[in-house]
Amino acid sequence: MGGLRELADSFVVAGPCGVAVRDRLKHLTPEDEMVLRAVGAHQGTLASRDLKVRCAEGLDHSADTWAARKRELTKESSSRIAGAITKATHDQWALARRCQAAHIRKLDAGINMLRHRLSLALGETGTKRAAGGYRSKSEWFSKSRRLGALEERHAATVAEWQAGRVRVVRGGKRLLNTRHHLTQTGLTEEQWRERWEAERWFLAADGESGKRLGNETIRVTPAGEVSIKLPAPLAHLANTGHGRYVFAATVAFAHRGTEWADRIEANRAVAYRIHLDTERGRWYLTASWQRSVVQTIPLETARARGMVGMDTNADHFAAYRLDRHGNPIGGPRRFFYDLSGSASHRDAQIRHALTRLLHWTQQVGAKAIAIEDLDFTAEKTREKHGGRKRFRQLISGMPTGKLKARLVSMAAGQGLSIVAVDPAYTSMWGTQHWQKPLATPRRKMSRHDAAGIAIGRRALGHPVRDGVSPARTELRAWGRTAPPPHDRSDRAGHRTAQAAPGDRGREGTRPPTTDRPPGGPPPSGKRKREPSASKTVRDAPRTQQRVHDSLTHTG
């Protein structure tokens, strides 16, 4: 491909495999809150103790040690609560293990990049694929010291990985460090302590299919009544039989409430989690369940009604609608968002932009959206981009992973499919072949809009650089299209569309359009029109004598 990397095939992204809905526990009595705090603190202590044991086991973990931990927890809670705690502990340890492996890969990338740049001469220019040498001796010296620090950190992390040691903080490392910066965060010690304890509580229960309403520990009736099975040491707080406590608050899931009701009435598994928002002072109940694996539609079916190509940028989505032949229809659409501020604000901005995108896609009649399969994991390191801090902040601020997951989930609810394509050269080729031809005095085309067209064409299976419409296939059968601007093809390249070897009349000249009947096939044979008489003086016959008219002569 002339130095271009091989492009990966497009594919239809699989739909979501789980659902989570949330509602607020309103009108809780002081006694209800006291019970929730007592149960959360008790079970949180058990979860912390179990996590400590699991981390100490390291790679020696087995089914027997898991069963032994569960038996110890059952004495102070119940069998179901002990199972939920041990499962959450194992998931937390596995997550820390994956993060540790990702950290090692990041250190490897930084070390390799530093070694490469240190091996080059000072001021040596780089390429698009590899960075060049450092600009000065002082920068070279500082980077050599950083290389030593990264190598030492890498060796220590690899040793921990091989020994099976992980670093986990129940409640979060960020909240733990906030304790040393209370003045900057505007929190008092009491406020921080309340938030820290709430994050370390454990008020969750896994669902069980076949059991009443899909969960025996935390039970929610179709009418919204919430009850919880108290652990053995807190059974004296129960206000009903069988050691259960019924809360005065009720819930009603506005989103997917019908689907949730159908599951609990069929006694299918539903997991619940209760948590406290300390900033607002509100209690919330989250219900989650797994969905059956949805078979994705074939790629050809997704292409049948055209595609919407979407280019993801730092502040907006650039979308363009294309028909099934890859022809752009209408004008570009942009859906803006703001990724500054808190995480909740950024998430709301993304959801709002995606909602408008999905609604517009349904309005234009498309059934699929093409996106780039982006991954900036290897691009975020400062060792590769050096002092380009703003660029590193730009690519680090684009939530590509979360964006893809949220788009897939929201599109599945609207009956739309997501097609992922290789992101290579989409911006470059889109700008080169689509931005200028589609720009008009009333239509402003940006390079992001052109990239959306390139993404959509790649998802439809058409080459990005081929701008010939299928409507011109009739012309291909009897001639060439888009002649070069010069008199010889070797000056400006070959024509964009060549007639096939077996096409009729491919070696002949193109017949004039005046001899073609309306709607009929192109004529064959020689021209029927006779050459017209010349109207120029120099083409007149030499036998003609020039006549002097005395009436027109002036002296």
What does it look like?
It is a single chain. With 555 residues, this protein is α+β, with helices and mostly antiparallel strands. It is built from 17 helices and 13 strands. The protein is globular. It starts with 10 loop residues before the first strand and ends in a 63-residue tail after the last helix.
Strand ordering within the main sheet = 1-13-12-9-10-11
Total count of helical runs of at least 4 residues: 17
Tell me the strand percentage band: 5-15%
Distance between the termini: 78 Å
**Secondary-structure-derived class:** alpha+beta
| Total number of strands | 13
Helices and strands, in order, run as EEHHHHHHHEEEEHEEHEEEHEHHHEHHHH
Shape: globular
- Unreliable residue stretches: 467-482, 536-540, 543-555
Tell me roughly what share of residues is in helical segments. 40-55%
